[in-house]
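Students often ask why we bother encoding 3D structure as a string. The short answer is that it lets us treat folding as translation between two languages. Here is a chain of 164 residues written in the first language.
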Amino acid sequence: MSSANAIVLRPRFKIELKRNNEDALRIFEDIKKTQSDFIINRIDDHVFIKFPKEKQHFWSPQLHLEINAVNSKTSILHGLFGPNPTVWTMFMFIHFIVAGLFIAFGIWAYTNWSLETDYTMQLFVVILMIVFWIVLYFVGRIGKATGNEQMHILYDFMNKALKL
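And here it is in the second language, the structure alphabet:
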């Protein structure tokens, strides 16, 4: 899993399992009862693995696994690392606000330019939003790097549980 140099903020992977999906899902149901290092939740074909509150920090990742049946003897595991859903929602909300301000002030700047009136303040805000987008990107990268060690711990736990 080489995620350190990837541009994506939410790394994904796919593994073909030599067991049916119910067996793989049952493994996580059983291991949930025998360990306390991780919180494991299963909903249908989805398994969510995350750290307990005392081991979490703001950028702690969680691992979302979707295990789909291919036939009676094999299945496909789709994995997705991501931040806590609350953090991800906040991050997307901030992106939405920045995009909205960028568009609104861009339209206002264009209107003032068309009317041949002063548009420096609007242009300044548009440029500021571009800078803010870049800052948000690097904050996301720093957050990903901060949670990288925990991401590997989650991945190793999954591999050990499924004996991969």
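Translate back mentally: The CA atoms of residues 105 and 125 lie 7 Å apart. Keep this in mind for the problem set.
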